[in-house]
Amino acid sequence: MAPLLSSTGLLLTALTLSASCQAAPSATPVAAAVTAIPSSKTSAGAPLFHSETLQLTDGVLSKLQLNNTRLFAFGNNASDLSLGKDSCKVFPGDAAWPSSTTWSLFDRLLDGALIKTVPLAASCYSDWPQYDSDKCKVVSDNWTVSYLHAADPASIMWPLYEGRTCLPTDDSSETCTVGGYSSYAVNVSTVAQIQLAINFARNAGLRLVVKNTGHDFNGKSTGAGALGIWTHHLKDMEYYEDYQGPGYRGPVVKMGAGVQASEIYTLAKKLGFTAVGGEGKTVGVAGGYVLGGGHSPMSSIYGLAVDQVVAMEVVLANGRFVTVTEESDADLFWALRGGGGGTYGIVTSVISRVHPKVGVTVSTFNFATGGNVTVDKFWAGVRAYLDRFPDNADAGTYAYFWVMSTGANSFSFLMNPYFAVNHTVAQFNTLMKPWFDELDRLGIPYTPKTTYYDNYYDAWDAGFPLETVASTVMATGSRLFPRANWEDASLLNQTFDALKTTITAGHPLLAFNMKADLLEGSPENSANPAFRNTLMHAITSTSWSANATNTQIRDELETFANDVLGVWRKTCPEAGAYMSEANILEPDFQQAFYGSNYDRLYKLKQRYDPTGLFYTPTGVGSEDWTVKSQDNLPDQNGRLCRV
Ligand SMILES: Cc1cc2nc3c(=O)[nH]c(=O)nc-3n(C[C@H](O)[C@H](O)[C@H](O)COP(=O)(O)OP(=O)(O)OC[C@H]3O[C@@H](n4cnc5c(N)ncnc54)[C@H](O)[C@@H]3O)c2cc1C
Ligand SMILES: *[C@@H]1O[C@H](CO)[C@@H](O)[C@H](O)[C@H]1NC(C)=O
Ligand SMILES: *[C@@H]1O[C@H](CO)[C@@H](O)[C@H](O)[C@H]1NC(C)=O
Ligand SMILES: *[C@@H]1O[C@H](CO)[C@@H](O)[C@H](O)[C@H]1NC(C)=O
Ligand SMILES: *[C@@H]1O[C@H](CO)[C@@H](O)[C@H](O)[C@H]1NC(C)=O
Ligand SMILES: *[C@@H]1O[C@H](CO)[C@@H](O)[C@H](O)[C@H]1NC(C)=O
Ligand SMILES: *[C@@H]1O[C@H](CO)[C@@H](O)[C@H](O)[C@H]1NC(C)=O
Ligand SMILES: *[C@@H]1O[C@H](CO)[C@@H](O)[C@H](O)[C@H]1NC(C)=O
Ligand SMILES: *[C@@H]1O[C@H](CO)[C@@H](O)[C@H](O)[C@H]1NC(C)=O
Q1: DSSP string, 582-628
Q2: Whose CA is nearest to atom 2 of ligand 2?
Q3: Among 87, 281, 322, 555, which one is least packed by beta carbons within 10 Å?
């Protein structure tokens, strides 16, 4: 170890790194607070990734000769969070906000991984040093492309929830502020960096957010004045064909928290297995997606993504790094598997069951009013489809379809795509026959483009479009419609009428016909029980004009949450909605997103995060906090305070 005089005048003890801890010191001493733990098989049944062997320990902390080691110390389970004034998390500008000296000390301990937030679109604003019209054009042209936001340390895909404070523009009268984006992000590549960031945020009373891709429909990965932990670069993946771990033996894949859907599917194609991940190409399959449940084109056969998880490596709110399995800690394992991201800890990797290679038939088609297709015939065609939902889901298939109003008395239906796992084209046509016969009888033209692929990747890649993100004039809501709605003829009529009412009023329906029974052999988890008997995850949205005032937007959001979605809720009041593709103002979100699991999840939240380090809007325990939003909208642009 070589002493190093830091630019701040503090004497740091440089810990020289090497993988084994005993090899010759590397040429350049590193001031980062980290030590390498030998990577043997943990109780997870698979070795740690290299990034996970680099840890913060009591030993490392005791060697840091700082006068404020306390700032980076591990937590005890007492309430050790020092909240600032009015029981709020410390905010930029507060006396208690860390000094620039402290931020640079933190950055040194992180080995330079700290990034001060510059809003993605700052290049469009002449009063920012980053002003650059060429860069602004790239950001503007690609604003709706999910890759752009996933690759940024702070940006999210739903600008409404950061406060729309720095949008791409060519209007020089607009302003750009950091708004509801986190103030700093740590670009993590080691467990030690996550531990340091957690300890620092907890000890300094800062708000903490975890950002992976920024997909979450309610902006759960952003927060004004927060320290962000950006997991995007934790990309390791390892396949174990004959894994033997707690409670399960068979093929698994271990994925780092930053792995995205297209990446795991690419590996799966190469090695000949099938993984249960999302349909969206850039969704983070080992982050918020899996922690909130995760529906998949494979769900009607294998259940939710979270049902596949057999072990996790996690950094807890107290900063400790632990392996979590059914055997090591059944309570935490249960809560992490479905209780939502950013709530109980930061997952650095998950080990998930995978399945044999399987063939898939993909079909896309559409029909619409016009010609001989009257509005009544159109709806009869849609109804004939709805009637088939139990059979189609029970056959193991998954379908993503859109129904929307396209003008006065005109409607369109788009199958985009039908994903018939383990079906040949002939088997798919047999499954569709009752519906297609009815469309024929009604005289509705439709021309399926149907192709068989011998593996999941090719089918998924051909079938699912890259979604458009980052609209600033739209919000979503959803419902998990239960099988019971199909088991009673008048309730099915009511369900159909509810959908028709919504669509006719101009709100599009983007829905999945699927089921998600708990995978056989998977221990019970905390995924929303409403998933277990659903036949349709239905999403709709509302929008407003670009010049709408905040008051108008607020009114529209409330009408949407209560009245528009209320029509759906009324058909199945006991059911729920999927937290990761949800409505931010969902009434009684505890019941809707967590169902009967809520009380236990809340108790476990108090046990594992007694100081409330982790907060996400509509997360477990979020009712104990409020964001003092600056524009009276339900966004993250304001101080986070205890209620
Ligand atoms: C275009 C698009 C397509 C989608 N497709 C699907 C789909 O097919 N199936 C489906 O089920 N959902 C889908 N979703 C919803 C998706 O599951 C959620 O947006 C989910 O929150 C994404 O997780 P993430 O980690 O990628 O995103 P983020 O927004 O970065 O994170 C979401 C939440 O998880 C937390 N989090 C992230 N990583 C970690 C971690 N390592 N440890 C602890 N907490 C963490 C964050 O703090 C945040 O609270 C889609 C969303 C979009 C926008
Ligand atoms: C460390 O202590 C010295 C002397 O008490 C003080 O001047 C300095 O500001 C402290 N540094 C930090 C980062 O708190
Ligand atoms: C506090 O933590 C210790 C050590 O992790 C644990 O044994 C104890 O049960 C915890 N106490 C509470 C009240 O959770
Ligand atoms: C981003 O924008 C540029 C033009 O400004 C374009 O050439 C490029 O293809 C875009 N990238 C994506 C991913 O859309
Ligand atoms: C984040 O860290 C990774 C290495 O883990 C590096 O490749 C990447 O360039 C960094 N990104 C930023 C924005 O600093
Ligand atoms: C409408 O129906 C008539 C009678 O069945 C048929 O001749 C005609 O081709 C149909 N038109 C279209 C556009 O399908
Ligand atoms: C696919 O279908 C066959 C019967 O046609 C069945 O034996 C097999 O188990 C199915 N595979 C999967 C993955 O469901
Ligand atoms: C359902 O609606 C259809 C069509 O409007 C109607 O004929 C049928 O009687 C209704 N069934 C019940 C049980 O209400
Ligand atoms: C928004 O612009 C439209 C015209 O494009 C106008 O009719 C409407 O009144 C404007 N609304 C507000 C709130 O300014």
Answers
A1: --TT-TTHIIIIIGGGHHHHHHHHHHH-TT--B--TTSTTGGGEEEE
A2: 67
A3: 87
Distance from residue 178's CA to the centre of ligand 2 (Å): 29
Burial class (CB in 10 A: 0-12, 13-18, 19+), 1: exposed
Residue 143 within any structural domain of the chain: no
Asked if residue 420 and residue 407 are part of one domain, the reply reads yes
Q: Are residues 574 and 633 in the same domain?
A: no
DSSP 326-353: TTT-HHHHHHHTTS-SSSSEEEEEEEEE
CA distance 355 to 114: 39
Instruction: Tell me which ligand sits closest to the C-alpha of residue 488.
Output: 8
Which ligand is nearest to the Cα of residue 373, counting in written order? Answer: 6
CATH number at residue 561: 3.40.462.20
The phi-psi region of residue 89 (left if phi > 0; otherwise alpha if psi is between -120 and 50; otherwise beta) is beta
Rounded to the nearest 5°, which phi and psi values hold at 262? -60, -30
Q: Are residues 423 and 442 in the same domain?
A: yes
Last residue of a domain, one of 568, 587, 606: 587
The two structure tokens encoding residue 495: 């369900």
* 146-174 tens-digit pLDDT: 999 999 999 999 999 999 999 999 987 89
How far out from the chain centre does Cα 248 lie?
26
Same domain membership, residue 419 and residue 349: no
Distance CA 410, CA 515 (A): 30
For residue 607, the ligand 3 atom closest to its alpha carbon is 14
Reported as a single tens digit per residue, the pLDDT across 580-621 is: 999 999 999 999 999 999 999 999 999 999 989 999 999 999
Between the CA of 359 and the centroid of ligand 7 the distance, in Å, is 10
Question: Do residues 309 and 332 touch, judged by C-beta distance below 8 A?
Answer: no
Residues 337 and 372 in one domain: no
Which pLDDT tens digit goes with each residue over 555-571? Answer: 999 999 999 999 999 99
Report CA-CA distances (Å) from 471 to 532, 556, 561.
31, 16, 18
Phi-psi region of 524 (alpha: psi -120 to 50; beta: other; left: phi over 0): beta
Q: Does one domain contain both 334 and 450?
A: no
Kindly state whether residues 257 and 292 are assigned to the same domain.
yes
Domain count, the chain: 2
User: Can you give the residue range of the structural domain that contains 579?
Assistant: 360-587
Residues 6+ apart with CB under 8 A from 187: 113, 114, 115, 153, 230, 232, 233
Nearest Cα to 325, choosing from 606, 532, 46?
A: 46
Q: Which atom of ligand 8 is nearest to 488's Cα?
A: 13
Amino acid at 370: G
